[in-house]
Design brief:
alpha+beta; ten-stranded mixed β-sheet; 3 helices; globular
Length: 176
Amino acid sequence: MLTHLSSRGRALCLSLLTVALAGCAGSTGGARPEGAAAANAASSADSLAQTSWELVRWTQAGGALRDIPHGDNGEPVRLTFLAQGKQYQVNGFSGCNRYMGSYKLERGKLFINAPASTRMACPAPERAKLEADYLRGLTAIDTFTLDNGGAPRHLTFNLRGGDVLEFERRQDPPTP
């Protein structure tokens, strides 16, 4: 469909598609930073750019830990923040599928648009539920924390329903 367009035209079409997909979904509504490192990160949209995170712990509202199974090929649940120019994207793996969306840090708050994802079938029902809950959770972040402002290694999302998602930083993607 895009083969007859110039590379700039294709890039514009893909950008518009990304914005349209993100616009169809919900967003966090503005997760407030907690702590000095998160407040520092929230002051600039570039603060999380080019970082990659693995979901390592999910504490449910009542305090129980939720199992976080890896994908069929052993791939963990991941969240990557990317920035190129004024385009701020999130993508990752949610247990069965890859997802993508957008984010922004504005007025001291983190906004993540609910990501669009591929539609691969999830063979295990517990992974399918985890994936659905995780993607829904990305749109229900109330507050977030980072362990430090320089080169954070730990990111936490406190969800509106009381669940807490903890991420550890992994190898960062290359800078464009």
